[in-house]
Write the structure tokens for this entry.
Amino acid sequence: MLLTTQRIGIAVQDIQESVASYVLRFGYQLESEIIHDPRQGAYVQFLRFPGDRVYLELVQPDGAGSKLNTAIARGGGLNHVCYATDDIEATCEDLRQRGMF
């Protein structure tokens, strides 16, 4: 079973303000424009360290009805971690056996 981290989602109040910090202070590079995801009620933008395979995904609520507002009200920060696998069924079974869900 191959399971690798692909994206780390960070809930932020303002993507543009946060991007400036990640780029100037930490050396991340922009990998996308700001993208609106109406299904998730969010704006997202992807960043990455040069040569790294893991993306940082900044996620901002798109309005008062966004589910992300709860996370922002608690101070934002780590929102989700996304993994990739070569066999989703086998990976889910393995994780169930380990008590993950």
About this structure: The longest helix spans residues 15-26.
